[in-house]
Design a protein that fits this description.
The chain has 201 residues and is of the alpha+beta class. Helix content is 28%, strand content 34%. The chain contains 5 helices and 7 strands, in the order H-E-E-E-E-E-E-H-H-E-H-H. Strands 2-1-5-6-7-4-3 form a 7-stranded antiparallel sheet, sandwiched between helices. Helix 4 runs antiparallel to helix 5.
Length: 201
């Protein structure tokens, strides 16, 4: 997390909301053989715990748990050219949003897997427009059950939430306006950063 307090103003709830909307991150633990990481979709359960599932063969799933863990959730990011500020003596930088959720990662009971997968599917299918949501009922008999035997459910009991929203808050409104205009002109992820900058005012 960036140490500048100018980029650390988002509340715990704002950071959790961002993480929940993103719904995808990098889960990391330290293991005997060194750091392990898995890129995972997730849901945030009521109360703020994170629920994920992993392939049985994943190194984290086979590690000694419970264990301290970090879920790093990255949002949009974009390079910022010093030319865009319109003032001298600036340097290149990178604007981005990232949220870190720390806590203890626990295996869950086998019976938690199906409702967890249903919840995850429901969240992401619900975000798609113009289609009837997919459900496991569309699978052939026994197929879903066979596939689910290859995954295991886990729960990250979140004890700390840190967010960095590095959006040029340390620059003048005029300098930020120049960056916003340049990022909007690029489109794509750069425009997403510009929209977040505009939302700050």
């Amino acid at each position: 997390m960036h140490p500048n307090p100018a980029f650390r103003g988002a509340s715990r709830d704002e950071n959790l909301d961002f993480a929940a909307r993103r719904g995808f991150g990098m889960l990391c633990i330290n293991a005997a053989e060194g750091p392990l990481a898995a890129h995972v979709p997730f849901v945030i359960a009521p109360g703020g715990a994170v629920e994920v599932h992993l392939a049985r063969s994943n190194g984290i799933a086979r590690a000694a748990l419970p264990a301290p863990a970090l879920l790093a959730v990255q949002g949009p990011d974009a390079y910022v050219s010093p030319d865009w500020y319109g003032v001298p003596d600036q340097v290149p930088t990178w604007n981005y949003v990232a949220v870190h959720l720390r806590g203890m990662l626990h295996p869950m009971a086998a019976g938690a897997l199906e409702p967890q997968v249903d919840a995850l599917t429901g969240v992401f299918e619900g975000r798609l427009a113009d289609k009837r949501p997919w459900t496991k009922d569309k699978m052939g008999e026994g197929v879903m059950e066979r596939m689910m035997r290859g995954i295991l459910p886990f729960r990250l009991e979140v004890t700390a939430v840190d967010g960095t929203w590095k959006l040029n808050q340390n620059k003048t409104p005029e300098a930020r306006a120049g960056v916003i205009a340049a990022l909007e002109a690029q489109g794509g992820m750069a425009a997403e950063i510009a929209a977040l900058m505009r939302a700050l005012g």
